[in-house]
Write a structure and sequence with these properties.
heterodimer, A: about 260 residues, alpha/beta, Rossmann fold, globular, B: mainly alpha, ABC transporter involved in vitamin B12 uptake, BtuC, about 0% strand, disordered C terminus
C-alpha cells in the first residue's frame, strides 16, 4: 500500500485550474521528485497535500486514512511535515528555539501540567531539548544553535527550515525547492542531508528545478505540466521522455 | 547548551532577586507614606498594570485589541451585580467576574479570532462600543447613570478591606497572582505556541499548532485578566458608569504596554502602567489636554523608541554607548 495516495485531485482558482485530475502514489522510504515548468502546479500540489487549500475535487489518502479537507495543523499532526519555498523561519529566534518550537505537538503531558511546571512536564521538556540538540547535530547546525536565524547565510537558513520540519517527526516530508539560491558547495551539503534523512525511513517528496540534483537524488520522478501529470518513472526514463523534453523546451504553443 | 543554560540561570536569579526587591518596596509603601492620595494612585496603577498585562498577553499570541476596557467593564458590572442583586460575597463574585469576561470572549472570539490582523482590531473596538451601549441602555446596569453604592469586599475574619491601605494590599495580591500566572504561561508550551503564532503563523500551523484554539485561548485568558481587574475596581471605586469603559480607555491600555515595551510582556505593562498613572497626575494637566499630551508622547515614542522604554538600554548599546555593556546576541527579554 502506498504511504500517500492522491486520487483524481483537482484545484480551481476562480476559472483557472492549477491541478487537474491528478493521480499520484508515494511509496514508503522513497525520494520522489516532482518537476515541471513554472506554473505547472507543483507548489499547489504541496499546498493541497499539507492542507493549506481545500481541493475542488478528489481525495488525498495518507496511511489508508482520508485526509482530504483536514486543516493544516491536523495534517501536520498525522505525520506530514513540510519546508517552504522561501526561507520561512522564526527569524527573530535562535536556531535552537526555531527547532524547539517544532516540538510543540510531541508533548504528551497535559497543558495544565506545563502551565504549573510540574516535574513530569519539566522532564519532558528536558528530553525535548536533548532531541533538538540531536537534530541540530544530525543536520550540522549544532555549532550555530545560539545564532539568530535572521543572521544565518541563506544555505544554513534552508537547512534550518528542513531541521524544523524534521523535528515534527514526520513520516512524509515535503521539501519545496530546497536547493534554490544555493551555491554548489551548499547544494552538495543539502543533497547529502536529504539522503541522510531518507535513511531514517522518512519518505521525501521534493519539488526542485535543479535537474542534475533531481536526477541524482530521486528514486522516482513525476512530471507535471499545466496541472496534469505528463510522465512518471525512473530518472533515466524521464530524461529520455519526448513529452517532457517538449514541455521544458517548449513546442509551438510555447511556455 | 551549557553556557546558555548557565546564562539563563544567572538571568533568572537576577530577575527573581529584583522581583522580590520590587515586591518588598511595594509592600512597605503604605508604611512609608501617610498620603492616602499616593496610595490611591498606586492602587490605580496596579489596576492599569493588570489591564496592560491583559493587552500584552493577547499581543504575545499576535493579536492586538482595542477592546480591553470592554472586558474590564464586564468584570466590573458582573461583580457589582452579583454582590448587589444576588447578595454574593465579593470573594465568590471575583472569579465569576473573570469567568464572565472569558465567556463573552469565547462567544465573540469564535467569530473574530478567525480573521486576525486589522479585522480583529476593528472588531474588538466595535465589541467595546457595543458593550458600552448595552451597559448604558439597560436598566439593570443602572443605565447611563451607572451603579452606585457598590459594597467594599467582604472581610475575612479579622481582615477588613474597606480602607485605602487594605485595598492596596488586596490589589497588590491580585497583581502578584496575575504576574505569576502570566509568567507561568509564557514559560510553558502554551507561551511558546503563542510566540510561534505571533512570529510566523503559517509555519506554526505546519508544526501542528491549532491557530484557532490557541488564539481563542489567548483572547479568553486575556479577557479573564481584565475581568478580574474590573471586579476589584468596582468594589474599590464603589460606583460604575459606562463612560469609564469607552474605547478611549482601551487605547490607554494599549499605551501602557507600548510605552513599557511590547516585547516585555510582564515588565512592559508594569513600567508603562506606573508611568501613565503617575506622570499625568504630577503634571496636573487638565482632563481636556491630557489626551493631547498622551498622543504626543506616543507619537514621539513610535518615532524615537519603537521598542518602548525598556528597550532603551539595548538601543543605547546598539548606538555604541559603552556604559551599557556588551551587545548581547540572544534576546532573553523576548520571553518576559
Amino acid at each position: 500500500m502506498p504511504l500517500l495516495e492522491v486520487r483524481n485531485l483537482t484545484k480551481h482558482f476562480g476559472g483557472l485550474s492549477a491541478i487537474t485530475e491528478l493521480d499520484l502514489d508515494i511509496f514508503n522510504s522513497e525520494i520522489l521528485g516532482v518537476i515541471g515548468p513554472n506554473g505547472a502546479g507543483k507548489s499547489t500540489l504541496f499546498n493541497l497535500i499539507s492542507g493549506f487549500y481545500p481541493p475542488t475535487q478528489g481525495r488525498v489518502i495518507f496511511e489508508g486514512k482520508n485526509i482530504t479537507g483536514l486543516k493544516a495543523h491536523e495534517i501536520a499532526q498525522m505525520g506530514i511535515g513540510r519546508s517552504f519555498q522561501a526561507s520561512t523561519l522564526f527569524m527573530k529566534l535562535t536556531v535552537f528555539d526555531n527547532v524547539f518550537n517544532a516540538y510543540h505537538m510531541n508533548y504528551k503531558n497535559a497543558v495544565w501540567k506545563s502551565f504549573l511546571h510540574a516535574p513530569s512536564a519539566l522532564r519532558e521538556e528536558r528530553v525535548a531539548r536533548e532531541k533538538v540538540l540531536e537534530i541540530l547535530e544530525f543536520m550540522g547546525l549544532a555549532g550555530l544553535r545560539d545564532q539568530i536565524a535572521h543572521n544565518l547565510p541563506h544555505g544554513h537558513q534552508r537547512i534550518l527550515g528542513v531541521s524544523i520540519a524534521l523535528a515534527t517527526q514526520p513520516k512524509l516530508l515535503l521539501l519545496d525547492e530546497p536547493l534554490t539560491g544555493m551555491h554548489p558547495e551548499e547544494t552538495l551539503r543539502m543533497l547529502d542531508l536529504i539522503k541522510k534523512v531518507q535513511r531514517r525511513n522518512i519518505t521525501i517528496v521534493l519539488v526542485e528545478h535543479n535537474m542534475d540534483a533531481v536526477m541524482q537524488l530521486c528514486n522516482r520522478i513525476v512530471v507535471l505540466n499545466h496541472g496534469r501529470k505528463i510522465a512518471e518513472g525512473l530518472p533515466k526514463e524521464i530524461r529520455d521522455n519526448q513529452e517532457v523534453i517538449e514541455a521544458y523546451l517548449g513546442t509551438e504553443e510555447g511556455d | 547548551m551549557g553556557s546558555q543554560k548557565r546564562m539563563n540561570n544567572r538571568n533568572m536569579r537576577k530577575i527573581w532577586i529584583s522581583l522580590m526587591g520590587v515586591c518588598l518596596v511595594l509592600a512597605l509603601l503604605p508604611q512609608l507614606t501617610d498620603s492616602a492620595y499616593l496610595v490611591h494612585l498606586m492602587i490605580m496603577a496596579c489596576i492599569n498594570i493588570m489591564l496592560g498585562l491583559s493587552f500584552s498577553l493577547l499581543f504575545s499570541a499576535g493579536l492586538v485589541t482595542i477592546g480591553a476596557a470592554g472586558f474590564w467593564a464586564i468584570g466590573a458590572y458582573t461583580s457589582a451585580l452579583l454582590v448587589m442583586k444576588l447578595g454574593l460575597s465579593f470573594w465568590a463574585a471575583l472569579p465569576l467576574a473573570g469567568l464572565a469576561a472569558a465567556l463573552v470572549a469565547f462567544v465573540a472570539g469564535i467569530i473574530i479570532v478567525k480573521t486576525p490582523g486589522v479585522a480583529f482590531i476593528i472588531q474588538t473596538m466595535v465589541i467595546n462600543m457595543i458593550l458600552v451601549q448595552v451597559f448604558g441602555h439597560f436598566e439593570i446596569f443602572g443605565s447611563w447613570a451607572g451603579l452606585l453604592d457598590i459594597p467594599s469586599p467582604n472581610s475575612i475574619g479579622p481582615l477588613e478591606f474597606t480602607g485605602k491601605v487594605a485595598s492596596y494590599y488586596l490589589v497588590l495580591a491580585l497583581l502578584l497572582v496575575n504576574v505569576l500566572g502570566s509568567y507561568a504561561l509564557y514559560t510553558s508550551r502554551v507561551g511558546r505556541a503563542w510566540r510561534a503564532i505571533r512570529l510566523n503563523a503559517r509555519l506554526a500551523e505546519t508544526l501542528g499548532v491549532d491557530l484557532f484554539r490557541y488564539r481563542l485561548a489567548a483572547f479568553m485568558i486575556s479577557s479573564a485578566g481584565a475581568g478580574l481587574a474590573g471586579s476589584f475596581y468596582a468594589h474599590y471605586f464603589q460606583s460604575l458608569e459606562p463612560g469609564m469603559f469607552s474605547v478611549f480607555k482601551s487605547i490607554y491600555i494599549q499605551i501602557y504596554s507600548i510605552l513599557g515595551g511590547l516585547n516585555f510582556y510582564i515588565l512592559g505593562p508594569l513600567v508603562g502602567g506606573l508611568i501613565m498613572t503617575f506622570v499625568p497626575e504630577f503634571l496636573r494637566v487638565s482632563k481636556e489636554i491630557e489626551p493631547i499630551m498622551t498622543g504626543a508622547i506616543l507619537i514621539g515614542l513610535v518615532i524615537f523608541l519603537p521598542g518602548g522604554i525598556l528597550s532603551l538600554p539595548e538601543r543605547l548599546r546598539s548606538l555604541g554607548m559603552p556604559f551599557f555593556g556588551r551587545k548581547k546576541e540572544t534576546k532573553f527579554s523576548q520571553s518576559l
